[in-house]
Design a protein that fits this description.
This protein is α/β, with parallel strands linked by helices. It is built from seven helices and seven strands. About 5% of the residues have low confidence.
Length: about 220
């Protein structure tokens, strides 16, 4: 992603940060919650969320990790950070949540830092050619045997055709990428190519558009 694209993306999310839940989370929350359930975060784990948005998952992960766990977040938007800080404070878990604003990749963390990395409707925001680099950075910061949870817009299954809404969405992404910024991807294929073992895979849809919920494991 070029510096110009990054600035446009950052500006877009800063503008919609206070209305994002109304615009998108009402549709995304079911898949996001299924992703967290599949990850099964345990007491005391150290977790990173890439693209934490308005902070719903941060709160859920902080509760799951308990008082001995730590939740880190990195997002491109200062606006999202402000919204998330308010949410985790109101939930009483701010003492175990550490948020930062940065462009990714690279990730601003040391090797083998985290037990879990989570991405919900984030991986498909990256240009296709950048996704392998993102996944290699995630492998770097995960501990051996660590878990990566991905919830993403998916491609239709083999033999199935795009729905009308899916076709419209793809057209909008092609022509107005800073408004419709997600693109359906083969997330399982990207994870396999990056060396993750798929431990769990759930397929569902949002408004007739397929969504993949995946948990990948790094080599021991």
């Amino acid at each position: 992603m070029s510096s110009t694209d990054e600035k446009l993306t950052k500006s877009f999310y800063d503008r919609i940060s206070h209305s994002y839940d109304l615009l998108a989370d009402s549709n995304e929350h079911v898949a996001r919650e299924k992703g967290l359930t599949a990850l099964g975060i345990d007491e005391g784990e150290k977790v990173l969320e890439i693209g934490y948005g308005t902070g719903h998952s941060l709160v859920a992960m902080a509760v799951a990790a308990g008082t001995t766990g730590l939740i880190y977040g990195v997002d491109i938007s200062d606006g999202m950070k402000k919204v998330s800080e308010k949410r985790v404070t109101e939930a009483g878990v701010a003492d175990r949540v550490k948020l930062s604003v940065a462009n990714t990749p690279p990730l601003p963390f040391k090797d083998h830092t985290f037990d879990v990395v989570s991405m919900s409707f984030t991986l498909e925001l990256f240009p296709l050619e950048t996704i392998p680099e993102v996944l290699q950075e995630i492998k770097r910061v995960l501990k051996p045997g660590g878990r990566l949870g991905v919830v993403s817009m998916a491609l239709p299954k083999e033999g199935e055709k795009d729905s009308f809404l899916e076709k419209t969405y793809k057209w909008m992404h092609q022509h107005f990428p800073h408004i419709v910024d997600c693109q359906p991807i083969n997330a399982a294929g990207f994870l396999n190519d990056a060396g993750f073992s798929i431990n769990d895979e759930i397929n569902l849809d949002i408004w007739s558009m397929p969504v993949a919920v995946l948990v990948g494991i790094t080599p021991e």
